[in-house]
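sorry for the late reply, my laptop died twice this morning and i had to redo everyting from scratch. anyway the thing you sent over, i finally got around to it. pasting the sequence first so we're on the same page, its 622 residues, then the predicted structure underneath. double check i copied it right bc i was rushing
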Amino acid sequence: KTLGALRGIQGPFFVTKMAALRSAVGSSGARRPGRPLLIVAATFAFLFAISKPARAFLPGPSAAPRSAPAAAATSGLSTELGAVAPGSVVAEVVTPGAVPSRPSSEQPGGLARASSLTVLAALPLLKVVKAAIGGVQGGSRGSLTVRANSARGEDVQNEVTTVVLPVLAAFFGWIAIMYAIQHSLFVVPFLGAGDELYFPIIATFVAGYGLIVLEEQTEINKAASALVLGVMIWVLVGTGLNLSPSEFDKDIKSTLEDVSEVVFFLLGALTIVEIMDAHKGFDIITKAISATKKRDLLVVLGFLTFALSSVLNNLTVVIVMVSLVQKLVTDVDFRMKLGGVIVVASNAGGAWTPIGDITTTMLYIGGQVTTAPLLANLVLPSILCVIGCLGYEYIQMDGEATFERPAASKEEEETPNGQALVFWGGLAGMITVPVFTAYTQCPAWSGMMLVLGLLGVITSLLHGPENEKYSLKGALTRVEVPDCLFFLGVLFAVGGLERVGLLKAFAVQLSSVVPYDSLVAILLGFASAVVDNVPLVAATQGMYDLTAHPANDPLWNLITYCSATGGSLLVIGSAAGVAFMGLEKNVSFGWYTANVAPGALAGYFLGVAGILAQQSLGFSFQ
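ok and here's the structure:
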């Protein structure tokens, strides 16, 4: 009787409740797993309830005798329920003058059960009713949805079985093989005595770099590959080398400290640029650039980047200039080409000043170069490097080709409050970070965070805490965190190689094979295109003594130039290139090698020729 009554009811109240139930279930995303115990208990309760005549939907018997019309109305209720037309409202039948019934617990003979028991018994029916209504209203749409979900499920299952599981098996198999080699579980014929300890570390580094390089082909995110690479290098160091727990803990913490400084510096600079961009600060520069031809814009941006990177950290310059180009050029290919030139120009501009590049700063602090001779010896080769790259790209471009600027909407034409203050304040703050570092002895990342904090205070006062578009909080939501994770993984891996002495051993081996120190320095530039130039420069500082090669020696000038500009040959060779690859999502290792590396190579060799010409003509200053 209960089922018949439920199927017959189609009034607005019931339909509304069922629609709300379907909406709630549909909006929950995935279906929740069933609860077997609850269903079993509800079923037993339902069977127990219907084993006796239930009167849940009927008025209880009254103490007073009912009149004939009332009895007739009551006896015919179940028939009327089944005949209710759709869309009508079902109301409770109340007989005038009838005495309200007593609670079910007081019913004689226990003919009616408690209402809570009946509701519990009806719970499993809700699913039946929902399925029936859904089947009537959904029609073929439900079957199509089921088939689509089934197809997607099969695709996911195929991906898991044919791609994910084999990749995971290869990963763990690689770990097992490397572990076995390190612990001499089997002999590798081409490895000499003691090489089995370091071969797995080098092989893992090469394999990880290969995955980063082949990101487009493998479709594996480079940040994920870099994180796995960075951790696995240290796993092999910890399990394969005979380091005491205290030594390993000291090395990994020291490396993490160095890497974290770079990551925090990058995070601060990226967030500052996001705040400046939210205030349309780059519009101040883009409106001042009147160039309309591609060649003219190439030259302007190249030399502007070169000038800025001589006083700014080249990583900061790349972030600022690439963000500027994104607001200036709509053509993606041309914009990527300009970004590659910016990387080359920023590395060249940082080579000839003590504060322009981290490697130059290292050699300056180490006493290998001093300020005035450094400026005099390397300014011309650095300019030649930029001229060589720009000249190569200039010839490749059509002389009359123009570029298209993004169309400004009405919203973009509105100037936010504090546009000039935020832009020039942020730019001046980033420029003064090296000065802050020199005078306070605080690390560079702390100066960048100080500038970020001050900008956050200024924007809060200008716009209020409720406007998150211009605030520090809103800027942090737009920062590309994977870029920072990519930096963390790559630098952590390189730091592992440097800590165990592999990079220094490589430099020493290179110097023993190559007879001329100048040629070693030139090849060092090519090596810095593959691995980070910081540990390579640190290795050369240990290779060549200041007694044999005093400060401002021609060898140190060549090492300074090559280590700073050689990283431009590959996109992963410098922090500037890695930042550029993070800012421009379409840039890959292969694209950079094919489109930017030839111009970078031309500039690199032209700068080397300038240094050697200066030295041969006696124009080197010491």
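Confidence is low (pLDDT under 50) at residues 1-42, 44-147.
thats about all i looked at so far, will dig more tmrw
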